[in-house]
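User: Can you help me understand a structure? I only have the sequence.
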Amino acid sequence: MDPPPMGENPDPNVKPEDIEIYSPGVSRGLSIGNDTARVVPGEVPEMITLSHHTQSNSESRLDEEIYETGTERNEVVRGHIRRLSAQFSELCSVARGAQDQFHRNHDPSLIDIVVECGLKALHLPLPRHGRRRAVTLSLASYLNLRSGFVNNMQDREKSVVYYKASLSQYPAGDTERPAIVAYVGTSIQNIYNKLGGIHHLEDAINFHREAVLLQSLDNPDRAGSLQNLGSCLLMRFHTQRNVSDLDEVIQYLREAEVLCPPGHANRRTLLHALIGALELHCERQRKLSSLELEEIIRYYKEELQLYTTGIIPISADTQLSLIRKVATCLFELFQKQQNRSHLQEATKYFREIISMMKPGHRNESNMLTGLGTCLQHQYFLQPEGGVEVLEEAIQCHLKALNDWQFETEDYNKSDVLLNLGICLERRYVNLNQLQDLEDAIKSLKEALEIVPMYQRERVLILHYLGTCIEKRYKSQYQIQDLEQSIQYLKEARGLHSEEYPDDFFKTSTLHSLGLCLMLQYEQEGQIQRVKDAIGFIQEELKLPLGMFKRISSLQSLTNCLSALALSTSKSDIEVLEQNLAQAIFYFKDMIANWSSDADYHKAVLLNGLAMCLCYKGNIEEASILFSEVISISVHQLSDSDCSSVMNDVASTLCSLYLRTNKFQYLEEAILYQKKAVSSCQSGNPARPTFLYNLGTYLIHLTQEQVRSQDLTEATNCLEEAIALLPAHASTRSKALCELAFCLHLRNTKFAYGEPISSEKITGYFQEALQLQLPGNPRRPHTLHSFGIHLYHSINSSSQHNIQELDKCIQCLEEALQLISIVSADHTCAITTNLAACSHMRYLFTGNIHDINRAFWLASESIQHTPPNHPSLSCSWQLLALIRKSVSKQAEDLLILSYKNLDPCSLFQKAANHPLASIQDRLQAAFSWIESNSLYERQLESLAAYETYLKLFDQLLHIKAPSIRYRHELLLGVPPTIASDGAACAIDVGDIVKAVELLEQGRTLLWSQLEHYHAPIDLLQKVDPILANDLEVCGQQLECSAISKHLRDAPPMSMDNEVYKYREISERWNTLVSQVRQLDGFANFLQSPPYSALQQACVYGPVIIINISTRHCDTIIIQRDGDPTLVPLPGTQLDDIANLVTRLSCALDAGPRGSARIIGVLRSLWDDIVEPVVQMLQQLKVPLGSRIWWCPTSDLGLLPIHAAGPYRRNMLNLPDMYISSYTSSLSALMKAIQAGRMLGKQEPSSAQIPHLLMIAQPETPTQVKIPSVLDELDKIQQIVPNLDTLLGENARREAVVGALRTHSWVHISCHGVQRIRDPFKSCFKLYDKPLHVLDIIEARLPHAEFAFLSACHTAAGDERSPDEKIHLAAGLQFAGFRSVIGTMYAMADIDGPQVAEAVYKHLFRHVGKEISEGDVLVDYRDAAEALNIATRALRNSGVPVERWINFIHIGA
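Assistant: Let's start by predicting it. Here is the structure, written out as tokens:
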């Protein structure tokens, strides 16, 4: 902007030198003003033009002043002043003319004329002239302008002098003062730019400050003043490095930016200055806030927009530099806010830069590094499916290193090497390629060599290098890797500055150090490593941590405490107690401040707290917390929960089991560990550990319950774990030990499959011991297990190998010496097993020293075991066995206290120990029985039998969720235990107790299912809520027992059904206890007394035939009176087994075997039935009466109902009495009382039942049965109300539905007996088989009578004959009160003939008048009808095996 003219209408002919300037003698000084100027800082100010009006006014003021003096001289002066004023005006006019010419041709010489005129005008003695301040300001402006043309600093300095002089003419409040002040500041600023001098800069700052203060917010010059002030302050910052100056710069430039919106001419310059100031601030403070970053990014983008749209020309390098700044700031903003959009935008800009660069560009490496870093963080945000992103990041980093051009900028290269190492480590985690880990370590080591010792990036490199080498250790298990990892991590910890107490990498380094030290502990067994690890983790927990990081740290702390809990050292226990208290505080604090009611992480916290409380001994509180964990896990967590948490939950459960011996904890631990394994994919480094844990839990399970499949599963888990583990892995030695012990159990406890050689098992133990150096905490456990194996190997051998036994003792003694690093429980266990070895040595050598040592060790074990510890049961049993084995000759050599020990009392204590496992107590009860028999203590024997049967009933109820598994458990029980107990009761003269024991110890499966249908009529009147709860709980237990899920799965499978069963079972026990507390319900669901059992004999006597190893007897029970005993001195258990074999061979022989079957029937008559018949006659039981047989043991497989002499003119049993069978008195009582129990009435006197006939003459995949249609035809001719399901209509669902609506049923089809799995015995229907469990589940409220015209429908089970598991029993349990079935395969042609005879008798009164009180059709006549039918069949001359096949069961 050009300066304005000094005057108006100039005379072009007048020059400055032509004008005479009067110079007064006394100089008044310069006084300059400006009434009309508008000054823009940074530009040359305009000259001021004075109007003629202003001139006349000034002259008038001068005349008035002179006139007032009143002298003649004043008149002279006045005239002189007028002449001076005219000269002043003429000089201004000449200056204006020169200025006009300057505007036209920009000739610098014209400025000289303007300046000269101004100087002359100001030298005129007119100090009060009105135009003087305007001329002074214009002169300052043109001096400033000329200095710019000729670079004359004198002119510039003079301009400043004139500017300052003019300020006195513009007092405060003058509207023109802000512009003048701004002019002064700008001029001084320019002088400083040329000459320097801090005083010039200070002056410029002061004038600019005043200008800003004076300017209004809407002043158009304010933005320029703010920018100038910011520029001056920035220059002072560069000189004095005062951060407050920089803060002011940013403040003023931000205000200026608001006043210069987009499109403003000065905006680009202003933005450039503001960006520079913010960058300086970043360099000074080392970081920008998110708001500052967002601001600078906005400015960069605006500047970039100006360039890219072509508004302002830009070079390619400048554009690249600007895009790089945008990308870099966006990435930094992402790091602060973790906003994925910022990262994606930064990635886009880096890609744009690289696409714009020519190959070999000097900044290509840096840009590739930037892109690689962005991609790297994109992968970290979403690792799932981000492998391609990670691969691209790696390629960027590699290309950046290959193209690296600046050897001097090693600090940048170290960043690239660090990021490359991190990416390669992540790729290793994804792909498990060891070369990636090796390359990562190499890259990080190279970065470590470059970076300076105390640079902060060195901490990151050391941290990642330590963690990568830790991963390599976990892959190769080289101990030097672990040591090196710890070394790097410790160095990283040492370099962490106190300036960053909340640094993420400091907490991560401490965490990794703790983990590495725990790995070192597992490898070396030094407990100090655990304490060091605890120290680092506690240090980490004191730092500010995020929620998830704190949870992870607390989990690591609990793992350390678990290891420390193995030590028995006093100092270690003190450390444990102290850290347990801190851990509990941390857990409780996090739980109390948890934001949500229940979620995954809260479950983890509760689990950790439960574990700590468990180690502290507060088992009750831990159990409560763990119940909450289970509730959250089962009901509120999704299936996507990670497998490691399931592993942790299972670990805590197992800890609770080991400390409480509560079996449900172990089952739940296995349940969760299976989930951990199933969700842990192949290739996951954690899978071997999870498999190992599952294997060990299953081994614990086999100690609790006899389930061979659990042992098989444990073996498979451990073998897979060993196959996956490297040769030197710490877990490998543990897995080898457990596998060896698992195989040992398979040989000793279960003895199934091909025996495993002792040498193979020993080899596993020895390999494990080679890996477990002295000091390893697992070594005592391995030595202990190895000793147990050697003991059992010697015990099972026919040779007395003293050398092997001494080797066994040596193993156990070494384990005992190393016990300082394991728990006291193990001390007692090892001591007990050493006692067993010394006992065995005594048996081999007879050396009294060995037996005394055995006594001492066993006594020591008992003495040091807590009073209520579960293991006491085993210790008492061992002590009893030791005492029992001492011969009478050696008794006098024993120490007196040992001599006085009573084995029977010890076994009794062991059997009644309330906290011992059911298995241990059962074993003790059995030993108690044997010892009582040895010492002839009959009364105590009876108590021992009662204890055994009671414990076994508990075992079935507590530990067997499904009825099929309960059956598996039954197979492991001595088959005659109940019969032997009854025989013992008979020996002491208590026949009533004998009956009660037989009822208590037989048909356990059916009895337990019956309990779930407990009669609640009376209870409903007393406590209806309790009655309803009990009914619902019973229904749930029954559903669990016959669950379809468990039905189709292997009998010993473990899944969620087990856990549900445990919950419901505990609820059931609680409810039953509450019922028994009510008045009159003390015996609720207890074994019924004899007086109650007699109700089963209302229609005739029940004959129990007790086949025992002690002796055999028959007990006849009648409705009234005491039971009658009929000894069978000529019958032994082996005799019955021989008869069963003879019958089986005779049946297999076909018609040729009939004579042999007659021989079996004669033996039954002579040895068993005839004495009973004789007693019945003595008891006045009329011939033709009904009698019920209740055989025990294998006798139930024989046709007692058909026994007889089978000689001419002699009656056989079918000719004398009408026989039925019952599995127990309770079952018969239920059949008789079924009407009352199910809310039904006795058969109506006039009602004809509807008979449902299920006829299947042709079943797919089965042989045709031609006689089925003939059977149907004969029944149709007899039965008036007949409904049929024939052929393809006889489908399973239709059959089950029809059974529910019919009280009578006749089934004619193929019947199949499954000996190995009797609950899968079935009727072959058209589409699907109808299994026993289907029948049990059916619930048939109207059932009365069933005729099963099929094979094997009442066939006994040779493996558990007392349980009576067959199709007929299933129908009877489902509600049928009277059932006709077959003992083995039937002849097809017999079906129609027997059915015709049976139904003719049953429906004999139809169409006839009946006497009052009689029943038209009564299911209770079925036994008599069958007797008539089979006798007719026999009389027709058919072979004996055909007619004896049919039997009647029930009422």
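Now, to help you interpret it: The longest helix spans residues 72-105. The radius of gyration is 54 Å. Let me know which part you'd like to focus on.
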